[in-house]
Amino acid sequence: MNTKPASYKHDLGGGIYLEAFSVDPALTEKDLAMSLTLKDGTAQLDLDSINRDIHLVGSLNSFDDLEVRLNLERQFRVPEQLQAYRDAVGRASDTKGRYNGPVALFDGSVSIPLQLFQGGYYDFIATKLKAVPHDLVPDQYPAGRTVTELFDEWGISPEERARYLGFAHLLLTDGGTKLSFVQRAKGMAAAPDCISLSGSTPNPKFTLDFNFQQYCREHVQAEMEEEFALKGSEFHLAGLHLFDDKKEAPFAALEISTPLTTEALAARIYGKQDAIKEHPVLYSMPLEGVDTLLQRFPVFPSTVQVFRALIR
Questions:
Q1: Residue 169: partners with Cβ closer than 8 Å, 6 or more residues away
Q2: Considering 108, 127, 156, 233, which has the largest number of Cβ atoms within 10 A of its Cβ?
Q3: What is the domain count for the chain?
Q4: What pLDDT, in 10s, does the model give residues 54-110?
C-alpha cells in the first residue's frame, strides 16, 4: 500500500504535462498512467450541443461585486400535474435517508444580479428533465415518458422546473498558474465517473436578515476544508462566472486561488474516505494546456464551458 500519493505526468506535447495524483491509496502510478492513456484521444467534443445547452450569462472580476435579490414571499410548487410524483419522490428519498435540504432557486431568468427564492432539494429531483415519473407512480404516469416529454404534452415550460444554484470550484493552484480539477467518483449523484471540476450545492435558508455573500463565503470555506483540507487563510475567493445549464442546473464557477500545489492538496487528503468517495484522483495542468485537454480528453460538458470561459 502506498504511503503517499502516486503520481503520473502525461505528456501533451510542447513541454506541457497533465499531472495526476492519487487520493485513493489503492491507485498506483501504473493505474494513473493506464487511465490517462486510455482516455487520451477519446474526446467527442460537440461544441454545437454544448453551446446550445450551456451558456455563459456573465462574469464578475470579484466575488465582492456579486449582487443578490431574494424573494422571501415565494415558495416553489411543482406543476399540479406533477404533484403525485413529487410526493412519491419525497417518500422514496426519505426512505433512503436523504434530506430535503433548502436550495436557492432562480426566480425567473438566470441573470446577474442573482434573483433567488427558496425551494427544496426534492423539488429539483422531482423536476429533473430526464426523470420518469412512472417509475415511482405507475398508475398515474405513462411508462417511459420523461419529465421533458410530459411538460411538452402539458404545455408547461421547462423553465418552470426547480432550477437551483450550484457551485463549481474553479481551483487555481501554484499561485494561480495551474488549473486543478478532479476525476469524479463513480457513485456521485451529479457528473459521476468523469473528468470535471469539484463542486457543491449551497443550502441557504432565507430569512429577513440573510446575507447571501457571507453565507457563500462560509459555505466555500467549509467545502475547501472538507474536500482539500484547505484552510480559509490558504485560498482566495476571486472572480465568478455564471452559467445557465438548460439540461442540468444553473451554476456559478467560483475562481479559488491558492499558492499550494495540487500535489500538496492530494497529500493532505490522501487516504481519506470522504475525499475518495468524491474524487479518487486530482489533476493539474498549466492554463495554456486547456485547449489540448479539451480536444483530446472527455470532459464533463459544463466543465468544458468553464474552461473555455477561463482561457478567453
A1: 197, 198, 199, 200, 220, 223, 224, 227, 254, 256
A2: 127
A3: 2
A4: 999 999 999 989 999 999 999 899 999 999 999 999 999 999 888 899 999 999 889
Same domain, 58 and 72: no
CA 35 to chain centre: 22
**Same domain membership, residue 43 and residue 78:** no
Phi/psi at 305 (5° precision): -65, -35
Digit-coded pLDDT (tens) for 163-176: 999 999 999 999 88
Verify that 43 and 72 share a domain, yes or no.
no
Per-residue model confidence as pLDDT tens digits over 152-208: 999 999 888 999 999 999 999 998 899 999 988 675 556 556 899 999 999 999 999
Q: How far apart are CA 252 and CA 66, in angstroms?
A: 11
Which residue segment(s) compose the domain that 151 sits in? 66-160
Contacts of 187 by beta carbon, 8 Å cutoff, 6+ apart: 277
Whether residues 78 and 52 fall in one domain: no
Cα 43 from Cα 301, distance rounded (Å)? 11
Question: What contacts 57, CB < 8 A, 6 or more positions away?
Answer: 110, 111, 112, 242, 243, 244, 250
Calculate the CA 278 to chain-centre distance.
12
170 and 252 in a single domain? The answer is: yes
Q: Which three cell numbers stand for residue 212?
A: 447571501
Its sign, for the CA torsion 46, 47, 53, 59, is positive
Query: Do residue 108 and residue 257 come from a single domain?
Result: no
Q: What is the dihedral of CA 204, 206, 210, 216, to 10 degrees?
A: 20
pTM of the model: 0.90
Distance of CA 37 to the CA centre of its chain: 25
Q: How far apart are CA 262 and CA 178, in angstroms?
A: 9
Same domain, 47 and 195: yes
DSSP secondary structure of 236-300: EEEEEEEEEESSS--EEEEEEE-SS-HHHHHHHHTT-HHHHTT-SEEEEEEGGGHHHHHHHS-B-
Half-sphere exposure of 77 (CA within 13 A, CB side): 5
CB 250 within 8 A of CB 271: no
